[in-house]
Fold these 4 entries.
Entry 1:
Amino acid sequence: MDRQRYRDLYDQQRKQYEQKVREWTSEHGVLPKGVRCPKETQPLPPKRPLSSFCLFNRKQRPGLREEHPGWTFGALAKEISKEWRSLSEETRQEYTGQSELLRAEYEKEVEEWISEHGPLPKKMTEFRAASRSTWTR
């Protein structure tokens, strides 16, 4: 896509800028006036997997939106939940199986993240506060 090219260019230029700032601070100790410090942040922890109902919702919602374009978000949600309640046990098991596979993958990602970055934060606000850099001017 055309956007990706610009994102890649931005990432490349941003890395060059951060490298120059680090070199400047290592030589002079202080940044020039008006130059901001780049933040050092941890990567985000892995996101939780989707439940079996959410997987069903993802699959059903586009079709319902085409059938009923004037329906509100709430009306769509009610119809999808009715369909979910009326599903046979076999069909539900398919979605539950997919959900369990995603859960297993999530557990592996969490173990890797914990081994690299420490325990998972209880709330994202704690994570953001802990990942702020300690740059001084």
Entry 2:
Amino acid sequence: LGISDEVDLIHIMAYDAAAPHSSYEYVEESVKRAIQQELPPEKLVLGLPMYALNREIEDWKSYAEICENKDNPCQDKRTNQVNGYNFNSVYDLQRKTSYAYNDANIGGVLTTYSSMDTRNADLHKAIWDAILGKADLENKYTQSESCPNGACPEDSE
């Protein structure tokens, strides 16, 4: 009997690595390594951190602390580095969630330090949009951002 026979889920902690602390490449490498070790994909759950890490000064901040200030540095949904702090952007989380569900076909995702999201739950919404297939990874925006209250009018011609 292996560990996978004894547990319900296995958390893949694909973050807190060298800068940037949670790259897409590190996620792919971590998931592939787990599958190569013959862990059942349906029990694998990818961890998605909601905090920023600065390796130079060994400090961390919440996503909200970085993004909810007068400069609004996260208005560009691809921004994932501010003043030496690396973090998952809205786009990064949608891409990783899509990878987990659609490419790697693992059991799901979980958030680490969920309370560090913005008051508007920007990161949680990004993950949910990716799960529902609303993330437009080519154009790097989500349907809920482009359509008020998620209600998009039908294309008319």
Entry 3:
Amino acid sequence: APARQSPPPPAAPADEGGQSMASRLNKMLASHRLVELKELCRRLALNATGAKAVLSLRVAEKLAEQASFDAALEQLKRLLEQVYAAEQAAATVLKASSSPAWGSASALRCIINVAVAAGVAAKALEAARGRLAELEAAAPAPVDDLDDTAGGEAAGA
């Protein structure tokens, strides 16, 4: 008997128009900005270099690995929410760190921490960290209320 061959891999799921899931996702991603596509690639651990069309296809193919189109859309929605949150956090950090009137080191530190948690790239936080160092260096040293050596000597005399 001849050797049995394995069946061919199943075709990619197609919608009524005959398009694959990746193709449908790619069309949806075409409306997004290049910076968003690069960030989606980064969050999906994909190469983030190339033209917009290349990045869009790369993301679409990765999302198409999901079990269904709805699952791929849900993952895309979550990723885009993360991307937009990071963009807002980066804008807030930039505004706070570039304002000469900003004087609160503790508030800037909190803003930086939120930005880090949102996934803002370290390079985007460099200026804010520099401004934080300036604010902390300019802040007066905290007064230690527990250090009463001078008062203790006077009281003991």
Entry 4:
Amino acid sequence: NLKNMTKELLNYLLVAETDFKEELCSKICMAVDRYSPSRRWQIDTLIKVMCLGGNFVKEEQREKFCRVVAATPDLQSYTVIKLYFNMKESLAQEALVNVGVWCLGEFGDHLVSGRAVDPDNNPIHVAAADVLDLLQDVVRKPPNSDKAALT
């Protein structure tokens, strides 16, 4: 079962050797892209991968995620909400920040207009100033800025 296997691989991602994390993220993304039971599960799982191992998710996989979101209008509000709140939690994972900023640029109007809804269909409204504050935080301290300073 893909869901059980993915759950186990995500748990392993937390403790895997750093040298193995890029390959593990790649394999998880590939399996999810290929065998996902639904678009929503696919998006949820890829966001989890980016939250846990976003510094190891390749550019190609980030682009693929953005294409999936762009091609799934009924999940765009859902996705931008999940990414926004995950980014508010932490800006440490590069892939999460990359796709999150892209989604905020493309679908951020869903957040500030109240078109987005929570799981109980209650409207979610985020102030435009809060979105701008988050984006300013990204600019002030981009993911991996510490690593970039070392090279």
